[in-house]
Amino acid sequence: xxxxNRDISWLSFNHRVLLEAEDAELPLYERxxxxxxxxxxxxxxxxxxxxxxxxxASGGLSETLTVDQAYALIRQITDIVNAQLEDRVRIYExxxxxxxxxxxxxxxxxxxxxxPVQRDFAHRYFTEEVFPYLAxxxxxxxxVRMFLRDRRLYLAVRVRRTGGxxxxxxxxxxxxxxxxxxxxxxxxGEDYFLMFLEDLIKDNLHEIFVGxxxxxxxxxxxxxxxxxxxxxxxxxxxxxxxxxxxxKRKIGAIARFVYDRKMPADFLxxxxxxxSIHREELVPGDKHLNLEDLSALPCPNPQVPSVCKPQGLxxxxxxxxxxxxxxxxxxxxxxxxxxxxxxxxxxxxxHEAVNDRHCREIMITQYRVAEHSEVINLLMAAAQxxxxxxxxxxxxxxxxEENNLATAEMMTKAGVHIIYSIPGxxxxxKVALVLREDDQGKRIRSYVYVSTGNFNEKTAKVxxxxxxxxxxxVVVDDMHLLFRTLQxxxxxxxxxxxxIARFNLLPELKKMIHREVELARSGKQGRIxxxxxxxxxxxxxxxxxxxxxxxxxxxxxxxxxxxxxPGRPFSRNIRITRIVDGFLEHARVWYFGxxxxxxxxxxxxxxxxxxxxxxxxxxxPVLDKGLRQQLVDMLELQLKADWKACWVxxxxxxxxxxxxxxxxxxxxxDFYDYLKTQLINKK
Length: 683
Fold this sequence. Notes:
With 683 residues, the protein is of the alpha/beta class. The protein is 37% helix and 23% strand. A 9-stranded mixed β-sheet has the order 18-26-24-23-19-20-21-27-28, with helices on both faces. Strands 10, 11, 12, 13, 15, 16, 17 and 22 form an 8-stranded mixed β-sheet that branches. A 6-stranded mixed β-sheet has the order 2-4-3-7-8-9, sandwiched between helices. Strand 19, helix 15 (538-549) and strand 20 form a beta-alpha-beta unit. It is globular. Mean pLDDT is 91; it is low at 229-233.
């Protein structure tokens, strides 16, 4: 075997996320949030990846898998997820709940545990707030079935008429869209009390099923296929067709049926038959499902330490010096590291462009933007201020299709020129261009921004990304050429400095790898460091294997999917580091030693087939010596990290880098301190 399977590799990453919940040195609510992230990740995995595998197993077309291989992979995924569930249950029940209790936050799970005062409160809350939203639906085989909606929690109830009669089954949709998932009960002494809404409902089922004996009840939910395919749609029809297909997402094919694993076999058999669920779609779960809701768990005890993350630093003078960003970029290229530095620097840059009388045009890509986005507001303000504003909107950004559509329609009304998706391609590049002219119409200093992350104020606070500003005329011309290509004005662009996927990115990457191979074979040091979210493309993995066999020393810092197998004869010089901490490692940074004259790049693509062959991605070389050194320092910190960092071994295990002696190196916190020191020294 020369490659890990991408889905199995992803499950290894998600397990690493879950393991953060075990770290007793983290604030308690940060540990709880990692359980929520793990659960949310797994939900999306089933809705997209497993749904795709199920389609292949049912006879759908695949370039890489047969029907039997898809079935086997689904079974392997099920086994791994079931094993991870054991870890999640253990961590939650044996670590998290006792830790909450030590902080005087107690979860009640049944009526018997409540005090008389709490019991009275819970009953009144159920009667006045919950009961009006409950509508049990009887489930009978061979009858019209209730439709189970995607991701909604349901309570399956088995009852029997008081005094005799046969068993009857009912389904209740739990009213989480109307009521909070967690109910706060009256405090007693030092203790605060919480209760899952479903536990409150279970305790009061006798109020709903009058004249029946309630035998048992268990939660369950459906995850449905969430993929939206519009690559076969002509450009002029893409908006309307996308709207139709997003609506149908809610009724997509079943990807999994998750149920409380304590549900009796005969109860489960009844539901499987009644709802026509296939056995391979069954995934046993815990008593409480949808644990992604733990991200909103109330903290009633003000004495509990809050989650404290480094705050975004701001460059001195940003808020007081007119045209601060313009002047800064005019002096030298600028790298911004989010969230260590505030995203306000980018919005400030846009604000300067809006009010710049020489700014003639702003061009920008939109992949995922925040709701109520200041970036979007500034672009609309620029259009209303007489600038030509062109926004390429990628409608196929999964789970953001509706938001992107609504945002695009709003911008159109404000006079922004919108370019929609290209059939067969996704535009994943995160780039912006400000073109300026003097009063005679001659091009003057203009500005380019290339980023590893989206123009999204919300994610810029939690994703570790890098943004690059330059006014280099060569890069400005390249970026203008890229936007003209997106507008289909140019079909065969030739880029001088930018590396653009589907044009010059792959040849240049291979050329730089081969350069390191030549150095190693001539007795000099060949060195490569690659930081990215995912590494899956077989052709590029083979390039790295060949470089390793030639003696090139290669370090990979890969957060998620990594199909390259380390520790084999063909990869003996390759090491894989994975970092999971409070911020999501999202930046892509590539280092090639180049015989002591290192070349460094930042940009949007991972080394996935989709990024390298089916997307428009943008990568920019970092030429400023000081900025290159910053990136090298960041990479070295991440490779030295022994806290929140692990090796990925040849069995896909997360092997923590723990050194018992010496100071801990926590890359994210230490890099924040590094940047803070640099800012202080520049004052």
